[in-house]
Structures are given as C-alpha cells and as structure tokens.
C-alpha cells in the first residue's frame, strides 16, 4: 500500500483546503492530495481529474487501497467537472500559462462561488497578470519550501473588477507581502531579476524597452522589500 504522506509542496496546498470542502483536484496524478484529505476527514467529497489514463489508474488504486471514494475523470482541465459538484478547485504542478488556460476554458470559475488554490511551477508573474485582468482577486499567497526551491500557492476567487497591469507589476501581490517568509522570497527574487538585468545590459544588441521594463521590475521589488523592514 502506497503511503499518502504528502511532499511539503502538496502538504502546503492541503493545509489551505477548507474543512468540509467538496474538492476538484485538477491534474490529480496519483491522487495523493484528495486521498490524504479524505482519509483525514478534512473534505466531504473529491473529484480527481487528469488527462492521462496511467495517472488515473494510479489514483484509482490508491483510493481503493485506502478505502476512500474518489470520483475520477479522464479529461483536460475542468472539462469534466460541473460547477455544482465542487466548491474548491486545486490546480498544482503546472506552469502558470497552463493554469490560466484551464481557468479560461471554465468561465464559471469567474463568478466567485469557488475557492481556487493554484500552485504554479513557472510563469508566476504571468499567472497573476492574467488573474487580475480577468477579475480574480488573490486573497492569500502562501510560501513553502521543498528541497532547495520555494513555491507559492495562490488562494484566489473570482467576482472582482478586472485590472490591467504590466508584467513588471505582477512579481508579487499585496497578499504575498503579508505571507510568512515574504522577505526571504523577495530577496531571492531580487537577486534573480538583478542578474537578468545585468545580462540584458551586457547584450551586444540591447532591447531598450525590455531593459526599461526589467529596471522597473527590479525597482518594484526593492521598494517592496524596503516596506517590509
């Protein structure tokens, strides 16, 4: 029997699922997140959706061996999930662009009736930019570390006014600045973006617009860090 002990990244995500939630876990893979929550009595029901037959078979085996009821769907994103079946949606382990595409294909998420727990592996700035542009509010950002990498989980809900922001203003949200570990996260971010700026400035053919945007990004992070001290 496979252990349902979660990695730090998934454990962080699990901690944000409300007690008694009806969860739809998108890209469920082995199903460990919903199975562990069902075993703990944290959630009332769960759906696991994935585009791969292999991962779904793995999830079905885990659910069966641990004696929990997990409704499994073979589909892309939220295509096989109806809004009335869940009140919480988790999407983890994907790039920010893929997460945005999943939400775009399920416009019912914009109504504000569902809590969305989003854990992007890449393109976090782009995901924030898309969320704000489509009327989502980032209620909370939670930071966690797994191995040498820091991850962020966005707790998001629709129903807000849309706002168009340049990408350099999407490196963090007000919610991230309130998170435990925000200072360390922003310090690492500043080092990374400073290195990127230096590389752009050394390039033989410098793109002035890109360099200006990168300078603004670096300044934005610096100012946020100063506000945390």
Observed structural traits:
229 residues, alpha/beta, 7-stranded mixed β-sheet, 8 helices, elongated
| Terminal CA distance | 48 Å
Strand content: 15-25%
Characterize the largest beta sheet: strand count, sense, and whether it forms a barrel. 7 strands, mixed
Mean pLDDT: 95
| Strand neighbour order, sheet with most strands | 3-2-1-4-5-7-6
Uncertain runs are: none
| Molecular shape | elongated
Q: Which structural class fits the helix and strand makeup? A: alpha/beta
Describe the structure.
The chain has 229 residues and is of the alpha/beta class. 41% of the residues lie in helices and 22% in strands. It is built from eight helices and seven strands, in the order αβαβαββαβαββααα. Strands 3-2-1-4-5-7-6 form a seven-stranded mixed β-sheet, with helices on both faces. Helix 4 (96-104) links the parallel strand 4 and strand 5. The radius of gyration is 19 Å and the shape is elongated. It starts with 7 loop residues before the first helix and ends with a helix.
């Amino acid at each position: 029997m496979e252990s349902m002990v979660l990695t730090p990244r998934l454990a962080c995500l699990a901690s944000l699922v409300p007690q008694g939630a009806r969860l739809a876990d998108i890209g469920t893979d082995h199903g460990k997140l919903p199975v562990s929550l069902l075993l703990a009595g944290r959630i009332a029901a769960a759906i696991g959706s994935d585009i791969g037959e292999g991962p779904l078979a793995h999830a079905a085996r885990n659910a069966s061996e641990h004696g929990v009821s997990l409704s499994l769907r073979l589909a892309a994103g939220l295509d096989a999930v109806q809004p009335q079946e869940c009140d919480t949606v988790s999407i983890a382990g994907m790039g920010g662009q893929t997460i945005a595409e999943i939400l775009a294909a399920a416009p019912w998420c914009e109504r504000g009736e569902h809590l969305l727990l989003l854990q992007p592996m890449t393109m976090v700035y782009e995901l924030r930019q898309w969320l704000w542009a489509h009327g989502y509010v980032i209620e909370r950002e939670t930071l966690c570390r797994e191995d040498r990498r820091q991850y962020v989980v966005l707790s998001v809900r629709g129903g807000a006014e849309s706002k168009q922001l340049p990408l350099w203003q999407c490196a963090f949200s007000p919610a991230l600045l309130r998170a435990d570990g925000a200072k360390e996260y922003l310090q690492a971010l500043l080092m990374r973006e400073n290195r990127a700026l230096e590389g752009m400035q050394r390039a033989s053919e410098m793109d002035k617009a890109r360099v200006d945007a990168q300078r603004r990004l670096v300044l934005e992070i610096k100012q946020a860090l100063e506000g945390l001290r």
